[in-house]
Design brief:
The chain is of the alpha+beta class and 378 residues long. The strands form 4 sheets. The chain has a 6-stranded mixed sheet, with helices on both faces. Strand 5, helix 5 and strand 6 form a beta-alpha-beta unit. The longest helix has 26 residues.
């Protein structure tokens, strides 16, 4: 088996030119993404492991097992990360135990991402005026932000906003909420921390197609982003928009049962996006007198390989435009709300952007809906 225990240092993102914010108290009058960071847990699950355990864990007849093997081969996911070894993940555990495990590891992983992001931004916890935490793969009260306040030394008056039910769209929504806050209070700073532990939702006894697909698709990880109104180098958030697809409640979500979270995932989700995404994006950009031809950075959430391929098709993009989204999907799987922040991290660390370049960020989640942001590099 190719699973291995590895030490994963949190990855720290800095704009490609290496600049840090110039002054932590100087207001720039714009919501700037000054830093990002990512963190993953120590265990890995590779494609060969998935094939081994799908056949061993799920009681599938030969035609269905063969079909699942084909799905694994075509999913474009090479590796994912998890908080436990796969031998432990597949063991039956009650909701109470899974919740305790989720809480412990969400705090640990979220703290790693948050500390790295603050270091990269050359800021302290006391410089943060609002914490936005995002997660949909577990449940905890007090929420993650409260734990981080006590562990990391944030001010007692820091504002808290936990976002818990937006699924894969949560990271993009958090960026939008941060931009709104900074626009209202131009000298303030927001720290976003997204933690998703999809392995905590594993359901051995659920043979639904949605559950089987989720076992092949989702991974564990955390990401953070710092949005500030103070003088900083990085992309500015110019505009944002939410769109909820009418009559699409059953497309995606979780069904909470005695055994924990059971995924709801319609096979029609990729087609739903395919049918409408171009008109939604065109309307969003036209409000700023822009078109897709004006966009340089395409920060697109890869819910799966079919969805990402449909986005390329409908938005007139080539693989070179979306390669970083494919890279994140391949190396981490779908990280739910953290995925968009992982992709943003890739753009900040691996691409050299010019002043004035525009970026479009888009993610999709339960509702069913999309969250979009328009960015401009400074």
């Amino acid at each position: 088996m190719m699973q291995e225990r590895v030490l994963q240092d949190s990855s720290i993102a800095m704009p490609a030119n290496g600049h840090r914010p110039t002054s932590p108290r100087e207001s720039s009058g714009a919501a700037t993404i000054a830093a990002t960071a990512t963190a993953v847990p120590p265990y890995t699950l590779e494609r060969a492991d998935v094939k081994t355990y799908v056949g061993r864990v799920f009681d599938l007849d030969e035609p269905r097992l063969s079909a699942m093997m084909s799905v694994i081969d075509n999913a474009q996911i090479h590796k994912r990360h998890a908080i436990f070894p796969v031998e432990y993940i597949i063991q039956p555990r009650g909701l109470a135990q899974k919740t305790r495990e989720y809480q412990e590891h969400a705090v640990q992983l979220g703290r790693r991402a948050a500390e790295c992001c603050l270091t990269n931004a050359n800021m302290l916890p006391t410089d943060v005026d609002m914490i936005v935490t995002v997660s949909c793969t577990g449940f905890m009260i007090p929420s993650l932000d409260a734990h981080l306040i006590n562990l990391m030394g944030f001010r007692p008056d820091v504002r808290r906003l936990p976002i818990t039910e937006l699924g894969c769209a949560g990271g993009a929504a958090a960026l939008a909420r941060a931009a709104e806050f900074v626009r209202a209070f131009p000298d303030k700073t927001v720290l976003i921390v997204s933690v998703e532990l999809a392995s905590s939702t594993f359901q051995r006894g659920d043979l639904s197609q949605a559950n089987l697909i989720s076992c092949l698709l989702f991974g564990d990880g955390a990401a953070a982003a710092l949005v500030t109104g103070r003088a900083a180098t990085g992309p500015q958030i110019l505009d944002w928009q939410s769109y909820t697809f009418p009559n699409s409640l059953d497309a995606m979500g979780f069904d909470l049962r005695e055994t924990g979270f059971h995924i709801v995932l319609s096979k029609d989700v990729p087609q739903l996006i395919r049918d409408k995404i171009r008109a939604i994006v065109d309307a969003f950009l036209s409000a700023q007198n822009l078109t897709l031809d004006d966009i340089t950075a395409h920060i697109l959430h890869p819910g799966g390989q079919k969805l990402l391929a449909y986005l390329e098709e409908q938005l007139g993009l080539c693989r070179c435009d979306t390669q970083l989204s494919w890279d994140v999907l391949g190396q981490y799987g779908n990280l739910s709300s953290a995925t968009i922040l992982f992709i943003l991290h890739e753009w900040l660390t691996k691409k050299t952007m010019n002043a004035g370049d525009y970026g479009l960020a888009a993610a999709f989640g339960p509702g069913f809906g999309t969250e979009m942001l328009l960015l401009r590099w400074t």
